[in-house]
Design goal:
Length: 411
């Protein structure tokens, strides 16, 4: 054996092998890249061919297109993966859904994968699960924790939002991080805790954060003030201030109805995505009908609402709309039809999800499909530091695995 140092270096360069379940448009993979983790996605899995088109367009690899429910323990063993990243469908646990939890057919594939863990000859060393807030109260969550404890994992859970990472975007999500013993977390005193603060991710070992869940107005105000303005995330920034006499808005009724009616269609009848801003203006008829239920933000706002997969199809409760003319007095006291309301573009939603600039949709993906895929995806600003924390190897862990100072290996 050459000097221990050189062998350690050589072995350390082996990337962690990762499986990306429910890969969608690759939010987990981008987060892994952003985290700077030395990892290789050895396979991604998704049943949706449109999502797989986008994934392939950006990563040059088409995910395994099939039902995750049909994978076997032998299939999973064949990848020899160290980490499993999972973002299963969230409809079984959303407030809008029927909350059937594990009884919902969309939860079956996730339960099946969990049940396979004890049957694999090489279970993963690390596991990461993302889902909606509410999942932590479901019977699927109970099952997840039961299986992870039985298979020797230590667990830390988080509920975090991009607002806590300087992004003016409210999308709180549940995360489960698990490491199989003898692996351990840097802050082991946070094991089996549900945390609402990102502080442990930044290397602080402050024990008080374990109980911190400060929902006070002051805390929210402080958080929002530390965020960038929405303006920084826009691709079209041509908003104006309202003049005293007339709104700075052109005839948006005309622009929007025309634009909505005239969208070019491809041979399957899906509208093609042009580069014009016109297609994003909200028709006057929708403003008149739904104006009071819309969430409206301004370029200088420090918060916008979660974009769901139904954004652009519906205006109520699916995400914020942008007022492109800043009225003297913000809000609904100023006539909405003079504020030139528009949808955020898919690129702007991707920006708020912290997707990199080189992320693109292939031409054949329609506008609605783009919003649907983005609405299903995740915030890289939140997931990247969580993955960094998950993959970090505390010194004590290396000592536990290799008490006699053996060379460290992932295998
Ligand atoms: C919440 S989204 C995850 C999105 C992903 N994290 C991203 O960044 O885009 C869930 C994904 O799981 C896929 N999916 C749902 N059920 C599946 C199943 N049984 N087998 C394979 N993929 C499934 C959906 O097509 C969808 O893309």
């Amino acid at each position: 054996m050459a000097g221990l140092g050189s062998e350690k270096q050589e072995v350390d360069e082996q990337p962690w092998k990762v499986l990306e379940f429910y890969s969608g448009i690759g939010g987990m993979r981008y987060s892994l890249m952003k985290a700077g983790v030395n990892a290789k996605v050895v396979e991604a899995f998704d049943i949706n061919d449109k999502a797989n088109d986008v994934y392939q367009h950006n990563f040059g690899h088409r995910p395994y297109q099939g039902n995750i429910q049909s994978l076997t323990a032998a299939d999973l063993d064949s990848y020899g993966a160290h980490a499993w990243l999972l973002s299963p469908p969230c409809q079984p646990y959303t407030r809008q859904g029927l909350q059937k939890h594990s009884g919902d057919a969309r939860a079956f594939s996730f339960l099946k994968i969990l049940e396979l863990i004890p049957h694999t000859s090489q279970p993963p060393s690390m596991l990461f699960v993302e889902n909606v807030v509410g999942f932590e109260k479901s019977d699927t969550h109970t099952k997840l924790i039961e299986i992870l404890e039985k298979t020797n994992f230590v667990i830390q859970e988080f509920i975090l939002s991009p607002l806590q990472f300087g992004v003016p975007y409210s999308r709180p999500r549940y995360f489960c991080l698990a490491k199989r013993k003898p692996s351990c977390f840097q802050n082991h005193f946070l094991n089996n805790k549900l945390l609402w603060s990102p502080i442990p991710l930044f290397g602080h070992d402050d024990t008080t954060v374990a109980n911190e869940h400060d929902q006070s107005q002051e805390n929210w105000d402080r958080l929002l003030q530390s965020c960038e303005p929405v303006q920084k995330f826009l691709e079209f920034k041509n908003h104006s201030n309202q003049s005293d006499t007339e709104s700075g808005c052109l005839d948006t009724t005309h622009v929007s109805t025309e634009a909505f009616g005239d969208l070019e269609k491809n041979d399957k009848g899906n509208e093609l995505v042009g580069s014009s801003l016109d297609q994003y203006f909200v028709p006057l008829s929708l403003i008149e009908r739904w104006g009071s239920a819309m969430d409206i933000v301004y370029p200088d706002s420090k918060r916008c609402c979660c974009f769901t997969k139904s954004y652009y199809r519906y205006v109520k409760g699916t995400g914020s709309l942008l007022a492109t003319v800043q009225p003297k007095k913000k809000g609904k006291s100023s006539p909405l039809k003079e504020q030139c309301l528009r949808f955020f573009t898919p690129r702007e939603v991707a920006n708020l999800h912290s997707f990199p600039e080189d992320f693109h949709f292939p031409q054949q993906i329609s506008l609605r499909q783009r919003y649907a895929l983005l609405g299903n995806s995740l915030s890289i600003a939140v997931v990247a530091p969580l993955l960094q924390y998950l993959f970090a190897e505390p010194l004590v862990q290396q000592m536990q695995i290799f008490p006699s100072n053996d060379a460290y290996t992932h295998n």
